[in-house]
Amino acid sequence: MIARLYLTAHTDLSRLDPTQVEFILALKPFSRHPSESGESRIKEAHDLGFKLHLEWDALMEEPRFLSMTQNWSARYVSSVRVKDAGAALWLRDHTSLDIWLHLEAGHHNRVAVESWKQRLGDRLKGVILSNELPQKTIQSWCDSLNLQTELLALGPLLLFHSPRKLLSPLKKEELHEELLATGASVESPHKGFPLLENEHGTFMFHPKDLCLIDRFDELQASRLNYYRIDDRQENAIVQSLVQDFIRAPLSAEALKHDWSKDWMRGYWNINKSDVLFDKLTNPHLQKTPDIIAEVIDGKKSHWLAVKVLGPQLLQGQDIEVVSPLGKVKIARLVWMKNSKFQECERIGSQEIGFIPWVTGTPTKSVIRYAPARSSSADAPSESEAES
What is the pLDDT of residue 381? Predict the structure, then answer.
């Protein structure tokens, strides 16, 4: 199994072996996330015997597509990694380069992949598989497709792309080539989604990066031909650690320690849609008659904003706050405030109010009255509301 790495200014070609790694060129205007390395560096890598692959994952409207193809130039590369169907067919008809299909955003059944073999014939050399496929499916496809295969093994996980520029209307100052922000879900407690806007539109990534290299033996057992590491957002030190790992893929601990984001394994060992069925039947996420309120917002260490679903919420009562994951915290309503943030003793049905902060209770947590305690049991102290 050979590594594929993006060629950047920090890539130390002298430390790498052409039999262990091949390079991806993310160049303007072809790449959605260009990482310019300069023609002299590209030529250097080529002269050292490294295989080079041009990444064409940018989606282009027709005028731009026609302009770009009329001035086509792809020196030093042996193949093109292409996402757009029109671009794939143009490469088939107008070049002699090998074609790799970028199928990460779809193609969850083998019939769809096989259909491309009919369209592109022997020009199709390989496919970049979706990370939404579990390990067993990937292994099965590698055995039966009769194509070379590649999978992202470490790097950002794209969740959403729109060709529209969704961030720049929110900014008043002059914009640069890229605009960065973070977003939060309005339907769940999840937040911290990295957002990026550039000339190709707006992208949203998972807060954690995908990592499979800490299961390197499993990657090899899946019979993949290539594993890809996308370290373009990392600093020179981390990129050097990536090169160390490629030379000797024994342990990913050093990389994990210095990588800029936490890691996750995605769908590798499980089809996450199965997990969703468990969540849909989770009683803690259902509005049962004993639920008296729902958490709609919070300010850490200060308050929770709640909407009352039952008849009323009363000060001095013991409550259970149940998170979307089913974790239960017990607290006492030592104070309450209404929607005007004024002290009150009750919050009526369908009204919004504020109660003391309770840790580990994000948005969508539900509140019910706690079961009555025995007289010998200690009542929850005021500090319990903040524990």
Answer: 46
Rounded-to-integer distance, Cα 305 and Cα 118, Å = 57
The mean per-residue pLDDT over the stretch 285-293 comes to 83
- Closest by Cα among 11, 14, 8, 4 to 37: 8
Residue 169: exposed, middle, or buried by beta-carbon count in 10 A (0-12, 13-18, 19+)? exposed
Q: Going from the N-terminus, what domains does the chain have, and what CATH number goes with each?
A: 2-157+208-275 (3.20.20.70), 164-201 (no CATH), 283-386 (2.40.30.10)
What would the pLDDT profile of 213-272 be if each residue is shown by its tens digit? 998 999 999 999 999 999 999 999 999 999 999 999 888 999 999 999 999 988 887 755
Task: Please compute the mean of the pLDDT values over residues 50-65 and round it to a whole number.
Answer: 90
Task: Determine contact, residues 74/54, Cβ cutoff 8 Å.
Answer: yes
- Provide the β-strand partners of residue 22: 4
Q: In which order are the strands placed within the sheet that holds 303-308? A: 328-332, 318-322, 366-369, 293-299, 303-308, 352-356
Nearest residue to 84 via CA among 228, 179, 200, 206: 200
Kindly give, in sequence order, each residue whose CB lies less than 8 Å from that of residue 274, ignoring residues fewer than 6 positions away: none
What's the one-letter identity of residue 320? E
pTM above 0.90, yes or no: no
Instruction: Report the first-to-last Cα separation within the chain, whole angstroms.
Output: 49
Query: Counting Cβ atoms within 10 Å, is residue 31 exposed (0-12), middle (13-18) or buried (19+)?
Result: buried
